[in-house]
Amino acid sequence: MVCVLITSHACAQPDAPLAYRTADLFSMQVVGSGADRYINLEPDSTTGFSALDTQCAALYWHHVYLFESYAKTATYVWKLQPLLPDTALIRTRLDSAFTADTAFTELYSKAITKTPVADLPIDSALKIAAHFFYLHSEKGKPIVHICVGFNKVKDLMPGPAHPYHAAFCFQTIRQIKDQFALLKKVKAPYSKEFKKKPPTEARILEVEQLVYAGMAQQPALRQALIENFERNKVHLNFRMVY
């Protein structure tokens, strides 16, 4: 007999619209000095909006994923490096970029205001999370990345709720103390194989799918997803079903 347990927690109701600009929810710093300095733009956990600060602090990595994956401003910021040290002009350009990026503003606002989207089944969460462990070929050698942008997560049947589900899974992985310890269990037999004989591109593609399947079966990853949801469900715009 198969027993399916569905969480009884209702999805948080959307909060009333807040008077803020998207740009107000991001902080900019100049890091380093001289020729090595660069502009760092990231979600702000102390926005100045008291109603948002707890949420923005709790979902920092969630918001990082949304920004890095969907905001045009995330790539545009690097084009502003030549304007240093004129931070006032840089901030003006960033404000304009955020204003113009209406698609991201709409997506991000749904996360901030907790506008409900589709539920996330635990099996789907595991599949998404597993795809952040991306095995591929780099200069002819197999390598695994766990990265906000370098993965195949967006290839997984994207839909209106997918960005938020993926952001949640990315945050879960970031908060695991040792992500590579989980990965080591799954890739161990393939690591031995690859040491004996360099793999072909076809074999790397085959093992890539095996790694995804193996990661999705890890009890520790399942538990981490559940714990992250229970810890942050009040801030999320979806329910996880498990």
Briefly, what is this?
49% of the residues lie in helices and 12% in strands. The chain has 242 residues and is mostly helical.
Label the overall shape: globular
Note the beta-strand portion. 5-15%
Strand order, largest beta sheet? 1-2
Instruction: Give the SSE order as H and E letters.
Output: EEHHHHHEHEEHHHHE
Helix content class: 40-55%
Helices and strands: which structural class? mainly alpha
Describe the largest sheet: 2 strands, antiparallel
Number of structurally distinct domains? 2
Provide the fold topology:
Layout: E1 26-31, E2 38-43, H1 50-58, H2 60-70, H3 73-76, H4 87-100, H5 102-112, E3 120-121, H6 122-130, E4 133-138, E5 141-146, H7 162-174, H8 179-196, H9 201-216, H10 219-232, E6 240-241
Parallel strand pairs: 3-6
Antiparallel strand pairs: 1-2, 4-5
Helix pairs in contact: 2-5, 2-7, 6-7, 6-9, 6-10, 7-10, 8-9
